[in-house]
Here is the input.
Amino acid sequence: MKLDFSVAVHSLLYLDEHRPNKISSRELAQSLHLNPVMIRNILSILHKQGYLVGTVGKNGGYQLEQSLAAMNLGDLYDLTIPPTLSYARFITGPSQTETSADQSAIAANISETLTDLFTVADREYRAYYHQFTMADLKRDIQHHGYFLQREADLDS
Amino acid sequence: MKLDFSVAVHSLLYLDEHRPNKISSRELAQSLHLNPVMIRNILSILHKQGYLVGTVGKNGGYQLEQSLAAMNLGDLYDLTIPPTLSYARFITGPSQTETSADQSAIAANISETLTDLFTVADREYRAYYHQFTMADLKRDIQHHGYFLQREADLDS
Here is the structure.
């Protein structure tokens, strides 16, 4: 769910803004207007991956371990929104009970072709995020237009 | 929904395979193992856009109007999976009732920044599909590996 990515990014920006203070998950939950349990789940993932130092739990608190420029946006996307493991439910195809003799060449092969297409498209999508760091995101928050301008520059 | 794209693509391949026959939506539904109503909805969209000629309805039938090479895969993707109009439900942010004075600079600005980021990423994602036609897809169905090979060629 894309929201997990937004929560991770927002939390990291908040912790960066409040360096070197130790921030509780309760304070973060209030600031992001979110359920503390959801915040704690995502902080726990970021903590495991070394983005944060601190202690988990009700009286715990977190600080950033790295600079924003050292945090790749694509890494955070992959961490919070893992790639789809199977595209089966998005693809037409023969039923499981049908024998291959009953199938046309298209029906028998479309699943593999569309899986390849969706998989490569998703890898390219993720490559877009991997071009940026959290410092780029902070730049856009301070002065909107960084991502749009960059797209316009590449098109021209 | 990604399934709509798969259904459109599969239908076009089936009609191409059976040129110059007129194919009923019932026959297509049987071949794709899908509900005839869903098939008819998607055929109606393809018909409106000029991909098909024929008559809608129970006793209707369809034929392809264009060659597969003239059908852009990105156009079909945009037609069957329109871009997300609002990313609001994927983005953290202040509640509607909170006045701007209560917000931090991050909370006040993160929605616009993440909307730009997601929007540009989605445009790049769609640009990937726009590189191909239905003839490329047919090529991969006949000999799997076209999309994967192309990605490998670009990376090397």
Notes: The mean pLDDT of chain A is 90. Chain A has two domains: 2-71, 80-125. Helices of chain A lie at 2-17, 25-32, 36-48, 73-80, 105-130, 134-142, 146-155. Chain A is about 60% helix and 5% strand.
